[in-house]
Amino acid sequence: MGNYFTVFELLKRAKDLTPNVEIVYGDNIYTYKEVYERVVKLANSLHNLGIKKGTTIGVADWNTNRFVELLYASALLGCVIYPVNIRLPPEQIIWTIKFANVEWLFISRDFEALSKVFDSSKVVYLDGNNGQISYEDLISKGAMEKVNYDVKGGDPYSILFTSGTTGKPKAVMYTHEKVIHGALSIVHQLGLYNSPAKLSSNDVIMPFIPFYHLWSWGSAFIASYLGAKYVLTGKFDPKTAIQLIKRENATWINAVPTMIQMILSSGEQLPGVKALIGGQAIPYNVAKSISDAGLKFSTIYGGTDMLAISISIIPGKFQVNDDIDYLRTTTHPVPFVEVKVIKPDGTEASYNEIGELYVRAPWLPGSYYNNPEETQRAYDENGWFKTGDLAIITEEGGLRIVDRLKDVIKSGGEWIPSSVLESIISEIPAVEQVAVLGYPDQKWGERPMAVVKLKPGQRTDQKEILEYLRDAVNKGRINKWWLPDKIVFVDNMPLTSTGKINKLALRKDVGIG
After folding, report:
1. Does residue 253 share a domain with residue 123?
2. Of the candidates 290, 302, 52, which has an alpha carbon nearest to the alpha carbon of residue 172?
3. What is the gyration radius of the CA atoms in the chain, in angstroms?
4. Where is the AMP-binding enzyme C-terminal domain (predicted)?
5. How many C-beta atoms lie closer than 10 Å to residue 166's C-beta?
6. Sign of CA dihedral 90, 377, 79, 498
7. Burial class (CB in 10 A: 0-12, 13-18, 19+), 339
8. Do 242 and 112 have their domain in common?
9. Are 321 and 199 in contact (CB under 8 A)?
10. Strand 274-278 versus strand 102-107 pairing type
11. Which residues contact 410 (CB under 8 A, 6 or more apart)?
12. 85: in domain
């Protein structure tokens, strides 16, 4: 692609189309025109520091205007940006910085410890002066002349890392054109189809997903493309989030279910707010609470190594009995995504048959960065990416994720999808979080164990949970032999860097390795 198909061109579009629309972070309020000018100056100053096309920079910060500016300055300059996953364990953070060949590190004071393991002469503090380089000085002293740094759509733009719950994180490299394709797939699905999380240029976009997770699901790029007001929250805090929604009249948010639960626990009503929710399955009780609070929501399925794959919509002529349940369980592939489900015998599944989900899309990275072994495992010879998720495709073309292949319980040669049991148990009012794990069984190979965290001040017991599950059996929702053999109560659930329940850590916590 030509140099017009780059991430920076999204900001240029916003500057030309909606120059007076604002990007807000606390007391820092800049119009798109002002952000454009700051970005040009920043890019020229970075070039004077020796940061050039192909240089990798790392950014460790919360969702701030500075991060947005670096996302665009790196795009103009042609350097590769690594949004450091600050929720990884410290040793993994250091490993990812080295693996990505980061040459310059941009950090806020909250992550000052990183400066101790990095060349301090190439560290820039984003919220102050380390005695050497000031971020604001880079902007104020930068030249306001847009230089052609010869950046093209096919050039590398950003390196990301998976969450690393089963070993070292895997890296993926995305080009400018792949990032743009991925972001616009979300815009088109939410803008052109019957989606509760409808998105337009009139929305005030407030992302809760951190930038280290797929650039906040591409929200900065989406906002610029639409010319929409963009409000940043810094470090996520539910109380601050509610205040900002009201102060800035936010109409569209993105979040993982854990964040939504934290916001709803305040008892606030948020009518008129639309939410795009993903990262893990939404339990029915949470989906019901979202609806009761006045929020409209859609769910998104994707990942670090595939970007957006599908988003829930209500197909034109298709009737559903329960919109809430349908939207939380069923998504539809975004434009230009191909999906298929492969059964254990290697044949392609028919409608409503379970198997591993394979996907193809124009924005797939095509490989894991400098990792040919994982690449060979993940891609077949025709470019299909093996997601590692169990899924079914419904007759109306919907996609339902049943479980992670590594999480599914294999009992007596049959599959028990843990996510289905988790969803049903989560319907019990006293339950806040639940994870279903497989534990070794001499006769069956594996049997299910439910690990439950209760809401503060709420009570239930093993007997009540089993009675609820038996009622689900009687209603035909699950098979009788799926019932957990053990139910364990815990005070805390370990979470991954993206807010999901960390089943690997939980298995150790409950003593099943």
Report:
1. yes
2. 302
3. 23
4. 421-500
5. 11
6. negative
7. buried
8. yes
9. no
10. unpaired
11. 416, 438, 445, 446
12. yes
Tens-binned pLDDT, residue by residue, of the chain (513 aa): 456 799 999 999 999 999 999 999 999 999 999 999 999 999 999 999 999 999 999 999 999 999 999 999 999 999 999 999 988 878 889 999 999 999 999 999 999 989 888 888 899 999 877 667 889 999 999 999 988 899 999 999 999 998 755 568 899 999 999 999 999 999 999 999 999 999 999 999 999 999 999 999 999 999 999 999 999 999 999 999 999 999 999 999 999 888 898 898 888 888 889 999 998 778 787 888 899 999 999 999 999 999 999 999 987 765 655 688 889 999 999 999 999 999 888 999 999 898 999 999 999 999 999 999 999 999 999 999 999 999 999 988 999 998 887 777 888 767 788 888 998 999 999 999 999 999 988 888 889 999 999 999 999 999 999 999 999 999 888 888 899 999 999 999 998 766 778 888 898 999 886
Last residue of one domain, picked from the residues 292, 324, 341: 292
Which of 496, 509, 379 has its CA nearest to residue 437? Answer: 509
Element (H, E) at 310: strand 307-311
**Shared-domain flag, residues 63 and 196:** yes
Domain that holds residue 441: 409-509
**196: buried, middle or exposed (CB in 10 Å: 19+, 13-18, 0-12)?**
buried
Question: Got the DSSP string for 28-87?
Answer: EEEEHHHHHHHHHHHHHHHHHTT--TT-EEEEE--B-HHHHHHHHHHHHHT-EEEE--TT
Q: How far is CA 3 from CA 7, 45, 229, 400, 493, in A?
A: 10, 21, 26, 38, 47
Using the CB atoms, write b or e for 271-282: b if 16+ within 10 Å: eebbbbbbbbbb
CA distance 100 to 102: 5
254 and 128 fall within a common domain: yes
Q: Cβ(482)–Cβ(423) under 8 Å? A: no
With beta carbons less than 8 A apart as the criterion, state whether 410 and 445 touch. yes
Domain boundary at 292, 315, 336, which? Answer: 292
Report if residue 394 sits inside a domain: no
Which backbone phi and psi does 263 adopt, to 5 degrees?
A: -70, -45
CATH of the domain at 482: 3.30.300.30
Co-location of 286 and 425 in the same domain: no
Same domain, 129 and 267: yes
What's the total number of domains in the chain? 2
CATH code at 255? 3.40.50.12780
On whether both 80 and 219 belong to a single domain, the answer is yes
127 and 263 in a single domain? The answer is yes
Starting at the earlier edge strand, list the strands of the sheet with 296-303.
28-31, 22-25, 229-232, 204-207, 252-255, 274-278, 296-303, 307-311, 332-333
Query: Is residue 241 in some structural domain?
Result: yes
